[in-house]
Amino acid sequence: MLATRGICLEPPQKLRAIPTLTLKPAQVTGLLDKLHTFWQRFAGLFQRREQEEWGLKYIQGRLMDGKKHFSKPIAQRMGIANPRCMQNFIGKSPWDDQDVLEEHQRSTQEYLGEPNALVIMDGSGFPRDGRASAGVARQYCNETGKVDNCQVGIFLAYASSKGHTLLDRRLYMPEDWFRQDYAERRKRCGIPEDLRYQTHQELAWQMLSGVLDRQVVTFQWVLGDEEFGRDTQLLDRIAGTGKYYFLEVPVDTQVWLDRPQTEMLTWSGKGQRPFKQHLKPESAAAQTVAQVQASLPPPRWRRYTLHEGAKDLSKNNFVL
Questions:
Q1: Is there a single domain that holds both residue 123 and residue 155?
Q2: Which residue has the higher pLDDT, 274 or 149?
Q3: Higher pLDDT, 74 or 235
Q4: CATH number for the domain including 148?
Q5: What sign has the CA pseudo-torsion 57, 61, 67, 68?
Q6: For residue 96, what is the DSSP state?
Q7: Which residues contact 166 (CB under 8 A, 6 or more apart)?
Q8: Do 185 and 57 share a structural domain?
C-alpha cells in the first residue's frame, strides 16, 4: 500500500507484457556515430587517452547482448584478447567517477529535466557466488526473490514525461563487514579505511542531498518503497527540503488521524536531559494503516492504475 496525505494506490493485478522491439534499419543507422558524440561529453574527464578509449569500449560492450555485470564477458564481446585490461580500467585505473556522475546529471537535466519530475529511491540485490566481492552477504536479493548470497545497491533514479535514467548509486556494506574479523577481506576488496556503516535510508539521503546541493537537476517529488517510507527521519528530511514525498509504508505502521498531545518529560537533574516529545497519557491510541483503511467506507476511496508511460500525474488530485 502507498499511503501519504490521504492517498492509497494499489498496483495493477496484471502487469503489461514486455513490448516487442520493432526497430527499423533507418532507426539503427547512425547509432554508433551518436554514441561517439555522446561519449565526447565525458571523454575529457579522464586523465589519460587510454582511459578514454577503454571507457568507450566498456559502454559499447554494455550495449551488446550477453552478461553485463562483469568486465571479463564485456571484454570478450568486444574481441579484447586480454580481459585483464578492461578489469584494470574498471577497478584500478585512477579516474574520478564523481566528475563523470555530475556531468551525467547535467546531461539528465538538459534532456529530461522538468520542474515536477520524480526522483525515485530504490534498492536492488544482485546474486554473487563466493565471498570475494565487496559487501557480499546473505541478504534479500531481488533477482532471486529471497534471502540469498548477493550484493545490494541503493539507487537514485530520475523520471519525467521525457524519459527516465539513473542519477546516482551506492554499494550497501552490511554491518558484519565492519567487524574486526572482516578486516583482511575489506583490505582485499579495497574498502576505504574511513568508511563507516550506513543503512539503506542513510545512503539514499546521502545521494538525494548531493543532488539538492548541486542544484542541477530539477524535480518536485521523491518516491520509494516501504524500505524508505518506514523511516520517519528520512521523511522529515525530505519534507524539510520543500519537496513532496510519496513513499510506501508497511500496513502495520502506526498512525493518528489527528495529531496527538505530547509533552517533554521533566528532567530530574540526573542522566541525559530529555530531548524527545512523549505522548500524554490522555492521548488517543494509535492505529495501524490497515485499521484506518478498513474503517473508511468505499466511497472515500478512489482507485488509480498507473501504466508505464503515464504522464503529467501532477494534474491528478488524489484526495480521500
A1: yes
A2: 149
A3: 235
A4: 3.30.420
A5: positive
A6: -
A7: 155, 156, 157, 158
A8: no
